[in-house]
Model the fold of this input.
Amino acid sequence: MKQHWHYSGLIPISVFFIHQVLQKALNFPMPLLDNYLDPFCLGALGIYGLQLERKWLFDQPALTKTDILLATLFLVIVSEIVFPFFSNKFVPDWIDAVSISLGVCWFLITFPGRDRILKRPV
Done:
């Protein structure tokens, strides 16, 4: 099967890796990005990955609005409630939930199959 990558997934993953190199390897502080870029990329790449999984494994043409809403809620609950409950390294922050949601919006705005997603009945 021919693999098709799109900038809706390539840009967030590239920005994520560049930021990780700057932050961890080069110790270059960027406080706003250090706090909120990772959740943004989680939202964008989480939904992008779910779309690829549905297409490759189940041959579904597009996610439904319900799929996207439930996946977004899952990402927010796990990252902002479950992880902080089990580890002090994670801190719940409502702005992270907004960042995850903005990442999902990035996917919805940039993904080439967005018309099928947004017009498809739930």
In short: The chain has a mean pLDDT of 85.
